[in-house]
Amino acid sequence: MNDSYDRGAEDVGNIVALEHVNLCMPDQRVATLFYISGLGFTRDPYLFTGLNVMWVNVGCNQFHLPTGAPQRLRGRVGLAVPDLDALAGRLEAVHGELADTAFEFAAEGDRVEARCPWGNHIVCHAPDPRFGPVALGMAYVELDVAPGTAPGIARFYAEALKAPVSAEEGVAVVAVGARQSLVFRETGAALPDYDGHHIQIYVADFSGPHAWLKERGLVSEESDQHQYRFVDIVDPETGTVLTNLEHEVRSMTHPLYARPLVNRDPARSNTSFAVGREARAWTLPPD
Length: 287
Hints:
- The structure is a single chain.
- The protein is an alpha+beta fold.
- It has a single domain, classed as Roll (2,3-Dihydroxybiphenyl 1,2-Dioxygenase, domain 1), CATH 3.10.180.
- It has 4 helices and 16 strands.
- Helix 1 (28-38) packs antiparallel against helix 2.
- The two termini are 24 Å apart.
């Protein structure tokens, strides 16, 4: 009998997936140039196909981009992408049309870092064992927080949401799915005011965190049977608000849980088309 397996490496915790990051932006055309033409992702063909909201598929994850005053994540979103050279080429191709915006990008070894037209920081990595067998997807969201807050943030996620956490040297890391993380990194730099951007997570124990949050007056929205929201992240020991990040919390019975998402191959064009080659797999091939 083989008893050498690391069973703990397979633990996910109560948060089973980080599904989307929601950022308002004022111009859907410009957003399309960056997220679809530049980054090479896929507009969801089934939901919100008008001019007020765009959902952008990235493997089994999404960006939600409603039309509104621009929001900026206080940190960065880390993505796995299959081909950094092709990504850099696409971003260079849209550079001229986005010249009068905050858009910029740089290819640096094993990553391509980009700023969206409104300044959001996107870090694109080559597939990496840290992210599991994912060729295309959202690997982490990293938030800048005030000095001294990381230990309390780790306590919050461990106690309120029953997530595996670690905290050392000013960085709290929270497991939010298989090989996905929320990272809170302390910084001495001035932090901008929180502008309402949000993330969405799925949890296995839906009622337990809700009861914990409600007891402390932290539930900000009772959305429906399958969803609620909270904004304030507090130290469980003192009740002190440490940072703000709206969480859209969904149950695993939510109608959208594990919905298959369409992902196109951005290398395909009318001159390089082959039937059955339109889609791009978001997982790596087996070893």
